């Protein structure tokens, strides 16, 4: 029997989280970002970043969650559990804003907004509901923290993530920006969802 669930990330998850990020980016973004940029991603730096995020989050509302797939083995063999994806979020800060927005008004405009920084599931574990569970668990925590809105940026041409967010009740809010990736401008759009509506779950 296979069981999928979400739990808070632990320090012993950091190596797997970094591996999943690298693997997923190199598969999902291979047509969006230059190959040499993806090839040069520093796994050690990424691992340190996740260790800091888990061990010393900036606030209690900054969280890293992992999706786990647990498989019960037949007979007397112990069950196997695999970290297959992760989500990270926290209170909205300057990185949630578009360049043309008033950054001095952040506290007023997005004081009650949560911002997603990552929701990734390793491609080989896709289509098993892990992304939906990560998002649903995040929504429950955002609501318990008193957030009323959530924001997320995606690459404009990342159709997989766009369809996932749309099926979960999110919509573009009209904001856009471009990331300078080694002199290549990669456009992004911002999504938002109200947390005061019905439960937000993926289809």
CATH fold node name: Aminopeptidase
Q: Please describe the biggest sheet, giving its number of strands, its sense, and whether it closes into a barrel.
A: 7 strands, mixed
What is the strand tally? 7
Q: Can you tell me the residue ranges where pLDDT is under 50 for at least 5 consecutive residues?
A: 198-203
CATH architecture term: 3-Layer(aba) Sandwich
Mind telling me the CATH class? Alpha Beta
Major β-sheet strand ordering:
1-2-3-4-5-7-6
**Class computed from helices, strands and strand pairing:** alpha+beta
User: Which percent bin holds the helix content?
Assistant: 25-40%
Relevant CATH superfamily = Gcn5-related N-acetyltransferase (GNAT)
**What is the 3D shape?**
globular
Q: Name the helix and strand elements from N-terminus to C-terminus, one letter apiece.
A: EHHHEEHEHEHEE
**What is the arithmetic mean of pLDDT?**
91
Q: Termini, distance in Å?
A: 23 Å
Q: Gyration radius, to the nearest Å?
A: 17 Å
Kindly estimate the percentage of residues that lie in beta strands according to DSSP: 25-35%
Number of domains: 1
Notes on the protein architecture:
This is GNAT family N-acetyltransferase. Pfam families: Acetyltransf_1 (PF00583). This protein is of the alpha+beta class and 203 residues long. Helix content is 30%, strand content 33%. Strands 1-2-3-4-5-7-6 form a 7-stranded mixed beta sheet, sandwiched between helices. Strand 2 (63-71) and strand 3 form a beta hairpin. The chain starts with a strand and ends in a 9-residue tail after the last strand.
């Amino acid at each position: 029997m296979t069981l999928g669930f979400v739990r808070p990330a632990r320090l012993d998850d950091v190596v797997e989280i970094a591996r999943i990020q690298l693997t997923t980016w190199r598969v999902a973004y291979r047509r969006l970002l230059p190959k040499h940029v993806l090839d040069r991603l520093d796994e050690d730096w990424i691992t340190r970043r996740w260790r800091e995020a888990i061990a010393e989050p900036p606030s209690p509302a900054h969280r890293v969650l992992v999706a786990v797939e647990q498989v019960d083995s037949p007979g007397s063999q112990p069950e196997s559990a695999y970290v297959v994806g992760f989500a990270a979020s926290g209170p909205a800060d300057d990185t949630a804003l578009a360049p043309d927005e008033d950054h001095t008004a952040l506290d007023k405009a997005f004081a009650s907004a949560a911002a997603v920084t990552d929701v990734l599931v390793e491609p080989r574990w896709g289509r098993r509901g892990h992304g939906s569970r990560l998002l649903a668990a995040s929504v429950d925590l955002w609501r318990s923290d008193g957030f009323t809105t959530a924001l997320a940026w995606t690459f404009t041409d990342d159709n997989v993530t766009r369809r996932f967010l749309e099926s979960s009740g999110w919509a573009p809010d009209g904001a856009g920006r471009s990331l300078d990736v080694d002199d290549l401008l990669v456009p992004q759009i911002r999504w938002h969802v109200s947390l005061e509506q019905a439960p937000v779950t993926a289809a």
